[in-house]
Amino acid sequence: MKLSTKGRYAVTAMMHLAIHDRHGPVTLAEISLCQGISLSYLEQLFAKLRRRGLVEGVRGPGGGYRLALMPDRITIANIISAVDERMDATRCCGQENCQGGQRCLTHKLWTDLSRQIFTFLEGITLAQFVERPAAYDEVVMHRQHARRREQPIKPLPIPAAMM
Q1: Helix, coil or strand: residue 26
Q2: Which of 55, 72, 80, 147 could form a disulfide with 85 if both were Cys (CB 3.0 to 4.6 A apart)?
Q3: pLDDT, tens digit (0-9, with 9 covering 90-100), for 101-110
Q4: Domain boundaries in the chain?
Q5: Cα-based distances in Å from 120 to 12, 71, 95
Q6: What is the CATH number of domain 5-86+125-156?
Q7: Tens digits of per-residue pLDDT, 63-94?
Q8: Chain centroid to CA 69
């Protein structure tokens, strides 16, 4: 099973939103610049994320996108599923017709692996992922802010619970 750029970029964009959400809505142009993701690709992803109720748009000056739910209610599996990414390691996409119309010898193994991956990703919330020290790494934050054309945001303080 290979997670495509669709799932990876969706998680990256949602992570960016979660980190910067307290400063107000975030534009797709900002995410594009900071994360190196095509703006048109982000627009497609955010249409799907919005349909699934994970983000909401804010119109007007200072508008952009923000999380529609608290970060502790959004799992990584929710994000990946929202952009139609399949978490299926089977060759047959779960149809049990992998070998000449019949279930292959290793079908159960790959089905179990798919469930394990989904369970793992469902067990990680956006809040937990954002709270990792690596999310606040000075090098990562500096690199992302250096890509912005406007004044960089001051580095976010690391939550006291993580020190």
Answers
A1: strand
A2: 80
A3: 878 888 889 8
A4: 5-86+125-156
A5: 17, 17, 23
A6: 1.10.10.10
A7: 899 999 999 999 999 999 999 877 788 878 77
A8: 14
CA nearest to 79, candidates 4, 3, 14, 2: 14
Selection from 125, 124, 128, 126 nearest residue 159 by Cα:
128
Nearest-angstrom CA–CA distance, 65 and 108: 41
Question: pTM value?
Answer: 0.78
Token pair 């290979």 is found at: 2
Secondary structure of residue 97 in the 3-state scheme: coil
Residue 99: how many CB atoms within 10 A of its CB? 13
Residues paired with residue 125 on neighbouring β-strands, in sequence order: 75
Tokens of 66: 């923000």
At 3, the amino acid letter reads L
